Structure formats: C-alpha cells, structure tokens
Amino acid sequence: MTKRWSILIGVLVLVLAIAPMDALGQKKKKKKKPPPPPVEQVVEGNVTFPAVFLDTAVTPPEPSCFARVHRTLFLQFGDQAQGYFGWHFEVDPATWGGTFKLEVTGGQSPDLDVTYYTDLGDLTTGAAATQSYETRSTTGEEGDIPANMNHVIVCMFTGLDSSFKYTGIGPAGGAPAPAPSGSPAGSPTPSPTST
C-alpha cells in the first residue's frame, strides 16, 4: 500500500506543479465592457404664437426670435406659460457636448428656434449667457449641445400653432464634454442679453 500511496502522491505533486505553470503561460483575457450608450433626452411640446424682435446687437439689425417673452412669462407663471410664446425645459447634463435635433411635427409653416441658457435669471434682470440656433427654416434646428447650459427655450419666429420634438443625444461613452474655453467657428450664435 505504501507504493501506491507514493505513486499517488507523486502524481498529485506533478499535477500541482504543472497547473500553475500552465496558468502563468496562458493569461486570461479580460473582456472590456462596452462604453455605455449615449444618453438620449426627448421632449415634445408646442408653441402657439410667434415672438419676434429687432436684434440690434448684430449689424445690420435683423429680426430674431424673442425667447425673452416666454422666459418672462415662465418666470412669473411657471408651467402655466408653456405653449403660448415658447416652450421651456431643463437640459439633461449628460447630453452636454452631444448633439440635438429639433423637428417640426406640425403647425402652419413654423420656423422654430432653440435658445440655451445657463440660468433663466429673474424678472428684473436679463438671463445669463445664452446660445441660440436660429436658422430660417420650417424643418427645425440641429447642432451641438453647449456645455453648462441648463435650460432650453423653443421659440417660434414665424408660423402658428406649431408642435415639435426635441432629441438631445449625449456624447459617445456617456461622459459630458468639458465646458468650452471659446466658441469655435460654426458654433451657435450668442444671443443678446435681451433674450
């Protein structure tokens, strides 16, 4: 019986000695987790009446969408102001640095614009820094979602009784982009402080 035990112990020692060598020779590959999908923010709303003013901050002065009308009504009446001269919503910070598309889904030849705000201010002062997309088109707007912009007002330049769908998609990997240090070419148009 001792010979059998000796052989068994010898085989066991040999197996234990070879197993770690095999484990060292073959590194296990770790599976990389795929990046999280980009965050998507979808908002649907409507704007009944246009709001326009003469923007004298540009040369030559030109008509522009007057988001301040809705901003003032919203600050005074809250959500009860939704839909008359604009539509307000908060931007999901996970979409900063991503892209947005504003689609016109109904109405009488509406030209809708998008204005981003850091802060909506109050009734006695103007709003904080804003960036606007004001393409003269009846199909909507699209572009980049600026970092550190917390609010959006959708405003109507022309048309009546329009409806829209806003889709904001965060950057790939789900991480918001850092705040830009300057506005590169092709960036949104800064709005005047009267918005």
Structural topology:
Elements: H1 2-25, E1 40-47, E2 52-55, E3 62-65, H2 67-77, E4 86-90, E5 99-117, E6 130-133, E7 140-144, E8 151-169, E9 189-190
Antiparallel strand pairs: 1-8, 2-3, 4-8, 5-6, 5-7, 5-8, 6-9
Brief summary:
With 195 residues, the chain is an alpha+beta fold.
Structure notes:
The protein is an alpha+beta fold and 195 residues long. A hairpin with a 6-residue loop joins strand 2 (52-55) and strand 3. The radius of gyration is 29 Å and the shape is rod-shaped. Strands 1, 4, 5, 6, 7, 8 and 9 form a seven-stranded antiparallel β-sheet that branches. Strands 2-3 form a two-stranded antiparallel ribbon. It has two helices and nine strands; from the N terminus they run αβββαββββββ. The chain starts with a helix and ends in a 5-residue tail after the last strand. 18% of the residues lie in helices and 36% in strands.
